[in-house]
Amino acid sequence: MPRIVSVASAVPDHVFYQEDIRHAVQQMFSASFRDLERLLPIFQNAQIDKRHFCVPMDWFQRNHSFAEKNRLYIENAVDLGARAVTRCLDKAGLAPEDVDCFLFVSSTGIATPAIDVRIANGLAMKPSLRRLPLWGLGCAGGCAGVARAAEMASARPGRPVLLLALELCGLTFLWGDRSKGNLIATSLFGDGAAAALIVEDGPTSASEGASPSPSLSPQIIASRTTRWPDTLDIMGWDVQDEGLKVIFSRDIPSFVLRHIPPAVDEFLQEQRLDRSAIDRLIAHPGGAKVISAYEECLGLSPEQTRLSRQVLREYGNMSSATILFVLEKAMEEKSTGSCHGGSCGNRGGCGCGDSGGSGGEYALMTALGPGFCSELALLRW
C-alpha cells in the first residue's frame, strides 16, 4: 500500500495583508463600480488574514503582457518549487537522486521544457528520472496528484515518487479586467507550492528514510474522480491576449451541497465504509463558503475542518497546492499528538501520535476543479 512519507510547503517572500489588499483594490476599482463599497466586505467575509505573492504590491498597479507574466512564472516557479522539493526530501531523509518519478501539477503558467525538468536539472536528480507534468486540473490538482502518484508508486514498490503542486495565482491578475469576478478573485487567491513524497513499501527503497513509522505516514487506500457533464462553465480559464482570465461560478457552494454527498457516499461504499468512519477531512479550502458547505452536507463539525480554515486564513486559496498545505498540517499534528479539541474527529478519544487501533484513523481528501470534477482520496493512519 502506498504511503505519504513527507509533505513540505514553501511560499514567496512578499506578504500582503488582507486589509492592505482591500485598500489597493478600492483605489484600483473605484472608477469601475458605482456600488464598490457594497462589494468590499468580500475581503472580510473571505476569512483570510494574509497571502503570499512572488511579486511586490506595485506590480499589480500596471498592465503586463502575457509573455512577461509567463517569464515571471517560470523564474519564480523553479525557485519556489525547488525550495518545497528540498524541504520535502530533507524530511524524508532522501537526496534528490533518490527520486524515481516526478509529478508536477500547475495551471497558472506554461513552460516547455516543463518546470519539473528545470528543477530536476538544478537539484541534480538522476538522468533516468520518470516525469509526468499535469496541467489544467486547477484547484483539484493537489488531490488528483496524490492519487496519480500513489498509482505510480504502486507500480514500482520501494521507489520514491515525488509530487509537486505549484501555483502563482497572482500572476494571472488582469489589470484591465474590472469585472466583478476579477474583483472577487483579488480577495481570495495567493501563491504557494507544496511537495509530497509517496512510496509503496518494498525492498528497493532508496534509503531508510523512505520507510517511516506507519503511525506517522498515512496509507493511500483509494481514490476516485467524479465528472459532471455540461459543467465546463463553472471553473477554468478564459485565455485572452493579456493572460489567463479566471472563471468561477458563485454557485459552487450550492453545487457542493447537491452533488458531493452522493459522490462521497459512493466512494466510501466501495471501501465498505460510510461517513461515520471519517475522522478527518482534508479539504481544499476553495473559500469560506465552500468549507461551510462541506460541513453542512457531510455532517461535519467545524473542528473537523479547522485545518482547512487555518490554511485559508494564513495563505488564501493557492489552487492545487492548497490541499497539500492542509495535509502537511494534519501530518504534523499526527506526529506530535497536538490535535486541538478533538479536531481529528476521532470519536472515543484522540489517537493522534498513537500507533492506532485495529482500524486506524481515516481521513478524506477532497477537492473540486475544472471539468467540473471532484477528486477524492481516502487515507488511513
Shape: globular
* Cα gyration radius (Å): 20 Å
DSSP helical segment count: 11
Mind telling me the CATH class of the largest domain? Answer: Alpha Beta
Spell out the key features of this protein.
2 domains, Peroxisomal Thiolase, Chain A, domain 1, about 375 residues, five-stranded mixed β-sheet, alpha/beta, 13 strands, four-stranded mixed β-sheet, single chain
Give me a quick take on this structure.
The protein folds into two domains: about 200 residues, Peroxisomal Thiolase, Chain A, domain 1 (3-Layer(aba) Sandwich), CATH 3.40.47.10; about 130 residues, Peroxisomal Thiolase, Chain A, domain 1 (3-Layer(aba) Sandwich), CATH 3.40.47. About 35% of the residues lie in helices and about 25% in strands. It has eleven helices and 13 strands.
Description:
- The protein is built from eleven helices and 13 strands.
- The chain starts with a strand and ends with a strand.
- The protein folds into two domains: 2-200, Thiolase/Chalcone synthase (Peroxisomal Thiolase, Chain A, domain 1, 3-Layer(aba) Sandwich), CATH 3.40.47; 219-332 and 361-380, Peroxisomal Thiolase, Chain A, domain 1, CATH 3.40.47.
- The relative contact order is 0.17.
- The radius of gyration is 20 Å and the shape is globular.
- The protein has helices at 18-29, 36-39, 42-45, 66-92, 115-122, 141-155, 180-186, 252-270, 288-298, 306-315, 322-336; strands at residues 2-10, 14-17, 50-53, 101-106, 130-135, 161-168, 191-200, 219-227, 235-240, 243-248, 278-283, 362-369, 373-380.
- Helix 8 crosses helix 9 (288-298).
- With 381 residues, the protein is of the alpha/beta class.
- Helix content is 35%, strand content 24%.
